[in-house]
């Protein structure tokens, strides 16, 4: 087992309210609303630490989880579809941009993409933004249990092409079955050892 303990630390509306920087290395989870970030976090930590909801846009703050007393897993608000006002969306975007641009100690950004749909422009914008800020990024396809193997292979190829990556650079997983999480754990270990 990679992760032995996970503890919720705080929810912060802005970078100013986050825990002190460089206290622990950070791995951040980003993705569109309804991509399955909370389910992903619960499966990764083998807990029910993140609130899973069928309503997009439930994560509204920068959520910090302390993993094994060694590193932070940081859950950012989803971008895209959330049924919230334009003002709230703008506030989320500002908090996310500030966090990603200024936060010290981020070792890896995990960009979750729903494998059931073509890559959205907002996913490409987020990826480009992460690259511009020199943040190591792992693109992960979620919800692979919802499609067949042939469709998954097509989605892997199309997603890799959209991000200008090799299919082998992507990870694909299911928060339901746990498929793919072993490969992800290897990626996290490597990021935390750097």
CATH-derived topology:
Rossmann fold
Number of domain units: 1
In angstroms, what is the radius of gyration?
16 Å
Total number of helices: 5
The CATH top-level class label: Alpha Beta
Query: What is the mean predicted local confidence, pLDDT?
Result: 89
| CATH arch. level architecture | 3-Layer(aba) Sandwich
Report helical residue fraction.
25-40%
Strand content: 15-25%
Distance between the termini: 21 Å
Q: Note the main sheet.
A: 7 strands, mixed
Explain what the structure shows:
With 194 residues, the chain is of the alpha/beta class. 34% of the residues lie in helices and 21% in strands. It has a single domain, classed as Rossmann fold (3-Layer(aba) Sandwich), CATH 3.40.50.300. A seven-stranded mixed beta sheet has the order 1-3-4-2-5-6-7, with helices on both faces. About 3% of the residues have low confidence.
């Amino acid at each position: 087992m990679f992760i032995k303990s996970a503890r919720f630390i705080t929810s912060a509306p802005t970078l100013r309210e986050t825990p002190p920087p460089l206290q622990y290395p950070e791995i951040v989870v980003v993705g569109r609303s309804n991509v399955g970030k909370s389910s992903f976090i619960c499966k990764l930590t083998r807990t029910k630490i993140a609130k899973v909801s069928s309503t997009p846009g439930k994560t509204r703050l920068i959520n910090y989880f302390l993993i094994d007393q060694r590193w932070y897993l940081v859950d950012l608000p989803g971008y895209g579809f959330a049924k919230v006002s334009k003002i709230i969306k703008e506030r989320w975007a500002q908090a996310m941009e500030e966090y990603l641009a200024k936060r010290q100690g981020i070792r890896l950004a995990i960009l979750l993409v729903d494998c059931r749909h073509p890559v959205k422009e907002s996913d490409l914008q987020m990826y480009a933004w992460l690259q511009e800020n020199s943040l190591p990024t792992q693109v992960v396809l979620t919800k692979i249990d919802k499609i067949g193997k042939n469709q998954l292979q097509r989605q892997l190829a199309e997603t890799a092409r959209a991000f200008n990556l090799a299919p082998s650079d992507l990870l694909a997983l299911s928060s339901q079955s746990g498929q793919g999480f072993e490969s992800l754990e290897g990626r996290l270990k490597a990021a935390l050892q750097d």
